[in-house]
Q: What sequence folds into this?
């Protein structure tokens, strides 16, 4: 290993997960969500292998993310909102655009006419997320009005779940019914999220034609067990120093750990700037030479310290595994009391990303 911190992404595992999801969701078409650089794993690399595996187009969150994929020839839609100052560039690049209001439809139509183009659009309906989308009581009127505007190819409708876990079934099934009430001769009708697909299989049956999936592609979320999805990433660092410190020595900032015995302390070249949660201070673990080693002291920006008493052969330069199939993203989720999305989004930009297939 030639880098202080390296994130290894298993593209074959991502493709295998995608194919399992495709099989589960059939006849629905699966649309990968690769926003925020494919949850920090590398959107172009992920798009390349998923496109080869049959993904027809991709969903992202921002115009910049969409433009990056368009430069590589991929069909892509912005999932949330398109801001007024983004309309011209989105039309020019051939981005599939969301419509959340009559005004947005009008702006896209005017820009399509100005550029002498046809713009593919999809209507986002707010069935209960309360964040974006056309409210249900206005949807029929707005959809009819926008469909009359020139320069627009109105492809379909979609919505989003605020929580598609089983305990939210009453609300979620009402959402599913509400979107289904707007089904007509659309090319695509879909909800988003691996939780929705796994827990409410009716979202993969007519009138629904597609389903959006993000976290499940990376072996995370409630779809993992029923679909037997696999983890796709390994996070590694290296030992920078190995020292023997006497009993009573302080380890790390703010005096949160004092050695109770003479200890071989390893300093590892990874910290919270790389995405390792501060919440792992004095409670997380890493793996050195196949042995789990506890993190001692507070996680620093650039380093952590670990107890190497059970790995006497460890030396500077040794590989340190921080995440894999044994120490998982979900372990970090529990320590940080968060969700997997935040763990992935926090992975730092200074680490080397490598890919294997």
A:
């Amino acid at each position: 290993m030639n880098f202080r911190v390296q994130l290894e992404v298993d593209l074959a595992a991502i493709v295998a997960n995608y194919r399992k999801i495709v099989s589960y969701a059939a006849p629905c078409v699966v649309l990968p969500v690769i926003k925020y650089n494919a949850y920090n794993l590398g959107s172009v690399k992920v798009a390349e292998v998923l496109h080869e595996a049959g993904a027809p187009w991709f969903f992202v969150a921002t115009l910049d993310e969409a433009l990056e994929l368009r430069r590589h020839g991929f069909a892509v839609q912005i999932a949330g909102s398109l801001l007024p100052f983004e309309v011209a560039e989105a039309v020019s690049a051939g981005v599939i655009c969301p419509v959340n209001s009559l005004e947005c439809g009008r702006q896209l139509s005017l820009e399509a006419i100005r550029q002498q183009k046809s713009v593919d659009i999809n209507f986002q309906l707010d069935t209960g997320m309360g964040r974006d989308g056309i409210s249900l009581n206005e949807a029929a009127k707005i959809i009819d009005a926008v469909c009359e505007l020139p320069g627009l190819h109105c492809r379909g409708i979609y919505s989003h779940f605020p929580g598609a876990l089983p305990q939210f079934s009453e609300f979620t099934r009402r959402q599913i019914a509400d979107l289904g009430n707007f089904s007509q001769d659309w090319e695509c009708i879909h909800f988003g999220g691996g939780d929705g697909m796994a827990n409410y299989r009716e979202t993969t049956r007519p009138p629904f034609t597609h389903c959006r999936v993000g976290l499940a592609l990376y072996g995370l979320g409630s779809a993992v067990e029923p679909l037997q999805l696999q983890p796709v990433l390994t996070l590694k660092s290296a030992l920078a120093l190995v020292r023997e410190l006497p009993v009573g020595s302080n380890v790390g900032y703010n005096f949160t750990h004092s050695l109770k015995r003479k200890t071989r302390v390893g300093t590892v070249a990874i910290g919270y700037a790389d995405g390792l949660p501060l919440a792992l201070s004095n409670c997380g673990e890493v793996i050195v030479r196949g042995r789990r080693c506890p993190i001692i002291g507070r996680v620093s920006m650039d380093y952590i310290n670990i107890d190497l008493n059970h790995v006497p052969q460890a030396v500077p330069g040794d590989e340190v595994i921080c995440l894999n199939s044994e120490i998982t993203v979900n372990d970090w989720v529990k320590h940080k009391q968060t969700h997997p999305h935040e763990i992935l989004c926090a992975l730092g930009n200074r680490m080397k990303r490598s890919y294997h297939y």
Remarks:
- The radius of gyration is 24 Å.
- The chain has twelve helices and 17 strands.
